[in-house]
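Internal ticket #5521
Category: modeling
Description: The requester needs a full-assembly model to guide mutagenesis choices. All entity lines are attached below as received. Residue total reported by intake: 338.
Assigned to: D.W.
Attached entities:
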Amino acid sequence: MILKPVPISAEQFTPFGDLIETGSDPIAINYGYTERHHDLASLDLLEQEGRPIVSIFRSTPLPQPVTLNVMERHPLSSQAFIPMGNQPYLVAVAPAGEFDASKIRLFIVKPGQGVNYHRGTWHHFCLALNAVSDFLVIDRSGKGDNCDEVTLVEPITVDLSDCEESTAR
Amino acid sequence: MILKPVPISAEQFTPFGDLIETGSDPIAINYGYTERHHDLASLDLLEQEGRPIVSIFRSTPLPQPVTLNVMERHPLSSQAFIPMGNQPYLVAVAPAGEFDASKIRLFIVKPGQGVNYHRGTWHHFCLALNAVSDFLVIDRSGKGDNCDEVTLVEPITVDLSDCEESTAR
């Protein structure tokens, strides 16, 4: 199967999680030197004595053509990824519940935009583009098994042919 | 008073909080495509029915010469700032407890490095350099008054004269 990514939007991503980005209604603080774009994600990290943690994921791009073979979900928590650099990246998701490969959606995300996968949303692991890229990750430490993985019966090849502009450095 | 910033290090920053950066001992995950630099900050966000939240702070550089007039602290929580772009920034801190201007330390921080102020650490608000810059902020929503501010009797002028290399785009 071949999929082309589409630019992410908060509306399209709503079934899967939160798009973490600046908006049109910030709060002016710090004598006007800071715009606070407030409370942008539904963090869900405290189940079963969970605690929120921050990590950095250093992601190496997959070889071209990018091929997706697995998806994962976290049944006990959300997981947020925020890029720390100036490269775009890919996000592949499918709805929570029983995994359905026919419902996989593929997005391209600009630097400056983060994503927060809601609890149970199926997603591919970090998919950097163009260069090794660091992501700030907000997830959970705690009891219980918090990662399920499925192997795709039919791998997905990513068609990046119309993404030259988005993926250019 | 004139202060020159010094490059931040985890060791020097320990009395004030956590330096959030990649280290030498990551965990290899995702079939080797991701290095997980795990659990890099002591988040302290749950006091008085607090909940962790994420926001984006869009920070405008202060006019040159950069002059510091105020410091603040959060008595109920930590507060983390992670740059989302490729510019350095300044961090001014003083130890928790009764405010002592003679103990202010000034650091310059590279892109790719975040800071997590521990509960009660005095700090200046977000100090972008070179360009308007976005920071991912992890702090607390909840009951209680969680911000104290002091005005410096003697403003601090920041001497950036030796920071050309660090502050260059």
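Resolution: model delivered.
Comment from assignee: DSSP finds two helices and 15 strands in chain B.
Ticket closed.
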